Amino acid sequence: MVKKFFIQLLKIVGMIFVCLALGALIVFPLWKWASSSPKSYTLCILILLIAFAVYLLIKSAKKIGIKSFTLRWSKILVIALGLCLMFKSVLIGERVLALLYISIAIALFFIIKFLEKKFFAAEK
Q: How do residues 58-80 score in pLDDT, each as one tens digit?
């Protein structure tokens, strides 16, 4: 009973040691790179994130079809662009322009939604 307890305890301590060692082997070089050359580290991380986002977008486009994908992302981009322009306008003090931007974005969203229903209803 006591021998089994110590074996289990050694396994746990060994796993903790392996996790700490692997963590140090992975994290230390990244930390050293980030602190010695932050611009190249940031650029490399951004490139990896963009590549991953593109991979996810391509995977999604293949899964749901290019037409559905294009319609979905066009709606998302129209609203996102409208919100960005609205916030920018508010921050520079042009509230009327912000209202115009968000109104145009909402109108474009509903136009895309209408066209989507019209074309998908025609295909069925």
A: 998 899 888 888 888 899 999 99
